[in-house]
Amino acid sequence: MNTKGNGRGRENSKSNDGAPGKKSTTAKRSFAPKGGSDKPKTAGKPKSPPSFSKKREEGPKAAGDKKETTPFKRKFTDFKPREKKGDPMPTFNEDAIRLNKYLSNAGVASRREADVLIQTGVVSVNDEIIVELGYKIKPGDIVKYDGETISAEKKRYVLLNKPKDFITTMDDPMGRKTVMSLVKKACKERIYPVGRLDRETTGLLLFTNDGDLAKKLTHPRYKSVKIYHVEANKPVTLEDLNKLKSGVELEDGEIKFDNAEFISGTSSREIGVELHSGKNRIVRRTFEALGYDVVKLDRVQFAGLTKRDLPRGFYRHLTEKEVAFLKMS
């Protein structure tokens, strides 16, 4: 029994170890790492993450060794702004203002007109003639225009409902009543009329010391709309009403009203006309060309401003919203 058992064991041993090219199905797999180590790894023990603290414990390396860097060390370094080499940045004086704007703020002229005045040599700063465009003045500088000291004033916008028998001028050598006498108590700043209304014409007239806005409202390119209530000396025919819109030939060229209509609830002598032309006495001259005399002429609207709650001969200051609308339109 023992002999047979040993024989079978030897046969099995030969069949497992001696047969070339055949793999044993009963042989156990080896988990020993390469390199000849026979120590099996401990089962169930997880691998510990790599430690970065060892490098700190090793101390300084030899002078010939290369310094090892990690992305973590670069990531958490403090940010230091890089200093740019070259000329220093220019400094700006926020209190300085261009000379042409200063003249415009003082109501002398618009900015474009102020540039012309500067180039002609009639403007001085601290008793020195300035002809350089873009020149800036600082607080405390004394600016003179044509020998008179001027100062930048607060912008004022005054709307007057002009009555009859007042002429639109700053001063009249003949002693006639002027519109300036009606607004002399409106503000301490010196204001100027925007455009003009003749002596017999009533209605809205704007005053301001804002030269840029005054230039804009009177320039034909900006088409500031004006609406007039016209009363003729006789009934206006429908044919002549259409001529006002199609065009009427005058001495200085053809004029076309933007609109012309009969005023409802009145006679055919009363017409409402809308136009943007700023020519002198343009409404009266147009009706005269058609054979009518204007008995009454009242400007009821100017650049979107109306006479609402403004009696004849009185004035009021524009609101901030109205000023913003004028500048934007």
Question: What secondary-structure arrangement, pairings included, does this model have?
Answer:
Elements (H helix, E strand, L loop, with lengths): L1 H16 L36 H5 L12 H5 L21 E2 H7 L5 H10 L2 E3 L2 E2 L6 E2 L5 E3 L2 E3 L6 E6 L29 E3 L7 E7 L2 H8 L7 E7 L5 H9 L1 E3 L2 E3 L3 E4 L7 E6 L6 H8 L4 E9 L2 E2 L8 E3 L2 H9 L1
Parallel strand pairs: 9-15
Antiparallel strand pairs: 1-4, 2-3, 2-5, 5-6, 7-9, 7-17, 8-9, 10-14, 10-15, 11-12, 13-14, 15-16
Describe it for me?
The strands form 4 sheets. Strands 7, 8, 9, 10, 13, 14, 15, 16 and 17 form a 9-stranded mixed sheet that branches. Strands 3-2-5-6 form a 4-stranded antiparallel sheet. Strands 1-4 form a two-stranded antiparallel ribbon. Among the domains are: 97-150, RNA-binding S4 domain (Structural Genomics Hypothetical 15.5 Kd Protein In mrcA-pckA Intergenic Region, Chain A, Roll); 157-220 and 308-328, Alpha-Beta Plaits (2-Layer Sandwich), CATH 3.30.70.580; 225-302, Pseudouridine synthase. The protein is built from 9 helices and 17 strands. A hairpin with a 7-residue loop joins strand 13 (259-262) and strand 14. By secondary structure, the protein is of the alpha+beta class. The longest helix has 16 residues, at 2-17. It is elongated, with a radius of gyration of 48 Å. It starts with a helix and ends with a helix. Residues 1-27 and 52-58 have low confidence and may be disordered.
CATH topology of the domain at 157-220 and 308-328: Alpha-Beta Plaits
As a percent range, the share of helical residues equals: 10-25%
CATH architectural name of the domain at 157-220 and 308-328: 2-Layer Sandwich
How many β-strand runs?
17
Described by its quaternary structure, the protein is: single chain
Task: Report the C-alpha radius of gyration, rounded.
Answer: 48 Å
